Every structure is written in C-alpha cells, then in structure tokens.
C-alpha cells in the first residue's frame, strides 16, 4: 500500500455526511475574457497550464484510500493512475450562450457527486460565450479544502499578468517510507522528548510527534491509531488549563442574563427554507462594488461582513414576504469563521462557526443593519471562548466511527427529519476574502469568481460571497425543490444594496447646503 496522509476528523466528516441529495463539494463559476486578438485554443492552453503546476498543489493529484472496513479515517495518497483528461473537460453551452444559461447548467452540474476513485476535483471549460467570454465551473470536495485554502489555491494557479509566469518543475526524488526499525527508534526518541520536558507540559504536548507507518493495512491502522490516541491524550492534558478557562468563560456568559437574551435571539424559527432538499440545485450569481460596501460598513460603524449579512437578510425577507411566509421572529444565519492563520495555505479545513440573528423582523434597512451589527458583536462574544476548544475537538478519532456516521447521515437524509426538527439556523452566509489584483489564466483576464457552495437538509439556501478586485461576487445555491429559480432571489440583491445606501445617504437639504 502507498504511504498517505490521514484526513482529520473535520475533513473526513464531509465525506461521511455526503449523500446523493447532499453533495459535499464546493466550487466556483469563473468568468474570463479572452484578448481580442486571441488565436489559440483556450481549453488546451488552460489544461497545459494546470498540468505544469500540479506540483504546486499536491492535493490535486491525491485520491482517497479507505481504511479496511471503514474502521478509521481514509488517507490521501498520490494517484499513480492520474489522468488530467478525467478532471478538465471541454463543455458545451447551448444558445443563447449567456451567463444565465451558464448558471442553470452550473446548478445542474453541482448536484452531481464527484467520483471517489479519482482525485476529488473537476474543471469544466465553456467556450464561445458572448463578449469573447469563457466560463469555468470548478468543484472540489470540501474534505480537501475550505474557503481560505480555496482562495490560496486560486493565487497559486492563476497569474497576475496576461503572460503566464514560469513555474519551476517539481523536485526529483521522493522520501522513502520508514522501515519498522526506524519507526521503533523514532518512537523511543519521541518518548524521550516527552519525559525530558516535564516542566512544560503545554509545549511538550504541542511538539510531541509520534511515528506513523502511513500505511492502510489493518495492523498499520491499529498502530497509527494507538500513536494518535497517545498524542491526543498528552495534548489534552497539556491544554487542560486553556480548556478550563474557555469552559468557565462560556458558563459565565450563559449565567449572564444579557447573554441569555442573546442566546434566545439565536433560536431559529421554522421557514420554507428549512426543509429536506432534493438532489437538484438552482444557482445564480450577482456582483456589487466592494468599495461602496466597505464605505457603507464604515458609515454604519460595522464590518463588511455585517453589510453582507444585511443584504442577505433583506433578500430573504423580501422573498419570504412575497410568499406570505415571513416569520414574526428574526431568521438566523450560520456564519463560518476561519481559524486559518495568515500565510497558511494547507489544503484542509480550519473553520468553525457562529449563529447570528439577521433582523428580518425589522422593515427599515438602516435599523436592520444596526441591529445586525449589534447581534453579530454579541454572537462573536459568545463564540469567542469556543475558538480555543475547536482544535481540541475537531480531530477526535475513534475506531469504527466512519461507518457509524455514514449510516446515521443516510438515515437522517432518508427520514426527512429536517422537515420536523427545529433548524439550527435558517440560512448559511459566508464571506471569503479574495485577491485584490487582476488575475489571468492562460492569457485570459478573470472577470468574476462566483462561489458555488453547499446546500444541506434543513438549510436549503447558501449565500457565499468572495471579494475580487473592487467587487463582491455573490453566489446563491439552493435545493431546487425549495426554490426552483433562485435567480429571482438573486436579482433582489442589487435593489437591497441600493436601498441600504439610500438609507445612509445624507438628506437632500444637507447636499444642497454643501453645494452652496
């Protein structure tokens, strides 16, 4: 068996929770513009560019290798039968070959599961669009990547000039696998390291690295799991003071009457968006100016993410009101929060989240944004103590857990429990920072990167936004049995943005006085 890197519990959970109705891949719909004098074959040029840079992102050539009987998490191993033609495809776009048609096809394609026998990613190139544009739909399994790593991958693959940069070829040679005697020697060295640092348990816990075989036979899995359990126990002991502090802070906040009010506001009312979803998706994208959104956040005394939440709130509020299904209680949003440190480009998941009330019960756009700013501040305060706990609980491993989680996920999906259980949150809203400079691929200018994320049972609507240059590109993805044409909702966003800007615009008399 090939040596590999075992998935963390958080990464592996996206595999276990996946069902035919609930694919767990994320992606994007990118729009490029070819130069007017372009004479080449963009598909072939783009594919050749990706091939020359595969070594920059090793996850692109890694496939899953399951543990026997699913008793432990699978591992990433290099695919020795990797074929680029099974990952990058030339796709056709029917008339009128516009963005609306592309969005409908992307929604249909995003509902299809990735083939787990190969590396978990696919690119589809749509040529021949209007205005010399080219569409690129990409998807990659969430087990391999989160939003932060996805943005980093974008910077690794694309260029900052129309002329592709030269990339050094991969280094020749590979690290040989460890022999049993080397593993035993490293094991003794690790224990010696542990006992030589008895007065600094926290540092010893973080630095302890017991050897692994990295193999997938049953004996190696049991050995590696034993090493992991020892490491986890030592790290747990070393982090007890931090965890006790975090738990005491959480208990203190729960005991505070004001905090209990905040917790009550995070209880989500049932809506039409919180039902069991089908295996079909509807997708649409829209853009607004980033600089104007930031100016609006500054005027309101909040953050850019508050404006994003306010726009999502306004859109959902208007849509539900049109169908006479808007609850009297405010809806809530699940908001992912990245734990990724600056400069960290590892292809894995480093994220947790918070629940925030989004003031859909408030009609006035200005008052709604102010309420969201206050609510998001409280939610961040409530979730802050949990940040220190996440690294301790996000990689819990137990032999036999993979098969049990998969069975439970399938039962939940087939039983339609999300139709009767109260929702944890009503919608998902995610804001992913992207590159500010113009990017290019194979000489074509990148115009937009619309995120295409995940819809789940009980949270059918996902609104993810990525910044690029001076724009915010919003991607709406939803279970098509809940909202067949999400473009209707997406078209409301520019109107909500205009209403929010108008609410913060100075009165006409002030403008007239300033002009005089």
From TrEMBL:
<dbReference type="GO" id="GO:0071731">
    <property type="term" value="P:response to nitric oxide"/>
</dbReference>
<dbReference type="InterPro" id="IPR045034">
    <property type="entry name" value="O-acyltransferase_WSD1-like"/>
</dbReference>
<protein>
    <recommendedName>
        <fullName>diacylglycerol O-acyltransferase</fullName>
        <ecNumber>2.3.1.20</ecNumber>
    </recommendedName>
</protein>
<feature type="domain" description="O-acyltransferase WSD1-like N-terminal">
    <location>
        <begin position="7"/>
        <end position="308"/>
    </location>
</feature>
<dbReference type="Pfam" id="PF03007">
    <property type="entry name" value="WS_DGAT_cat"/>
</dbReference>
<dbReference type="Pfam" id="PF06974">
    <property type="entry name" value="WS_DGAT_C"/>
</dbReference>
<dbReference type="GO" id="GO:0004144">
    <property type="term" value="F:diacylglycerol O-acyltransferase activity"/>
</dbReference>
<dbReference type="InterPro" id="IPR004255">
    <property type="entry name" value="O-acyltransferase_WSD1_N"/>
</dbReference>
<dbReference type="GO" id="GO:0051701">
    <property type="term" value="P:biological process involved in interaction with host"/>
</dbReference>
<dbReference type="GO" id="GO:0005886">
    <property type="term" value="C:plasma membrane"/>
</dbReference>
<dbReference type="GO" id="GO:0019432">
    <property type="term" value="P:triglyceride biosynthetic process"/>
</dbReference>
<comment type="pathway">
    <text>Lipid metabolism.</text>
</comment>
<dbReference type="InterPro" id="IPR014292">
    <property type="entry name" value="Acyl_transf_WS/DGAT"/>
</dbReference>
<keyword id="KW-0319">Glycerol metabolism</keyword>
<dbReference type="GO" id="GO:0006071">
    <property type="term" value="P:glycerol metabolic process"/>
</dbReference>
<dbReference type="InterPro" id="IPR009721">
    <property type="entry name" value="O-acyltransferase_WSD1_C"/>
</dbReference>
<feature type="domain" description="O-acyltransferase WSD1 C-terminal">
    <location>
        <begin position="349"/>
        <end position="500"/>
    </location>
</feature>
<keyword id="KW-0443">Lipid metabolism</keyword>
<dbReference type="GO" id="GO:0001666">
    <property type="term" value="P:response to hypoxia"/>
</dbReference>
<comment type="pathway">
    <text>Glycerolipid metabolism; triacylglycerol biosynthesis.</text>
</comment>
<keyword id="KW-0012">Acyltransferase</keyword>
<keyword id="KW-0444">Lipid biosynthesis</keyword>
<comment type="similarity">
    <text>Belongs to the long-chain O-acyltransferase family.</text>
</comment>
<keyword id="KW-0808">Transferase</keyword>
